[in-house]
Amino acid sequence: MNYRDPELRDKLAADYVSGVMRRGARRRFERLLRDDADLRRTVLAWEERLYPLIEALPPEMPRDEVWQNIRRRLRARDRTQSAWGFSGVNFWRVLSGGLAAALVAVVVTGQQVAPESAPTMAVLQDGDARAGLVVAAMPDGAVRVHALASMARPEAGRVFELWGLPASGAPRSLGLLTAEGRMAQARTMDTSAFTGLAVSVEPEGGSPTGAPTGPVILSGNLLQL
Amino acid sequence: MADAARLQVLIAGCARAEQPALAELYRATAPHLFALATRMLRRRDLAEEVIQECFVSVWDNAHRYAADEGQVMTWMTRIVRNRCIDVLRRPDREQADPDGEITDAWADEAPGPLARLESSRDGARLAECLKQLVGQQRMAIALSFFEDLSHSEIAARMTAPLGSVKSWVRRGLERLKGCLG
Question: Which of A116, A128, B54, B77 has the fewest CB atoms nearer than 10 Å to its CB?
Answer without folding.
Answer: A128
